[in-house]
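Not sure how to ask, but would you mind making up any protein sequence you like and the tokens describing how it folds?
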Amino acid sequence: MVNIAKSMKRTKIRGEGTWGYAFIAVALVAFAMFTAYPVVSAFIISFQKYKPIGSTYVGFDNYIHTLKDTLFWKALRNTIVYTLLTVPVNLLISMTLAILILPFRKKTQSFFKAVYYLPAVASGVALSVVWLWIYDPLEGGILNQFIHFFGFSNQNWLGSSKTAMFSLVLMSWLSSHGTSIIIYLAGLLGIDETYYEAAELDGANFLQKLRHIVVPSLKPATLFLLVTGVIGSFQVFQNAYLMTGGGPDNGTTMVGLLIFNNAFTLFDFGKAAAQSLLLAVIIAVISVIQFKYAGKDVEF
């Protein structure tokens, strides 16, 4: 009887294991088709002078040409500048808004979360059309109308090398905070109230509570948003493509846009693949550095 029971138990476990593999098979197939296969294909193409019929093996030529290309380094510099100007400021704005929303009742919090998350649901093309209207260089442009109150003349926001990058940065500052606000609010709601009560008994003011309770408690969320924010900003494409096209004089050409242009404008797929893999390596190195130095005392 004991042996029969053990045999039935093993059969049941095996059956459950089979169903488990069946359930994850769909995700594995999707990952293999849409992630693993494209990565492997890009790796192979990066060593080729790619043609739909009859590609030629060129070794490391695509990588060598990329590293010697001044436009690649300019695009990388533009991407780094964009990242440094947007990611820290966006985190600060999102945290500030989350702290301001926290005292409201739950329904009011939900309302603000929905309002701030709405741009993430809207089409990126539609949002870009709105921002093109805001940056209209003529008198009808909203931003030009605003600066008229301070005595300034019309500015060609997207067509001038002095203001094009700032225009993309400002667009990032004033949008796409919904996800970060929701994550920060979740972190704020998870802080034990006894910490605040103990701080009040010790005579701590708002800024002291913020520094010694809120900021340390939100460090896991901040690290997550920092890493994902840097990854997203290094891959930025849509804003530069729709708003400036990389101009003027490649002043807003990001690495993602450069890869797109090489692949689908110049049809140099080998060079585009090499650049995409170099970008992946750069992002991976930066992410490791962030986890190593910013995530030392972070517990998830």
Observations:
- The CA atoms of residues 10 and 16 lie 10 Å apart.
- The chain has a mean pLDDT of 89.
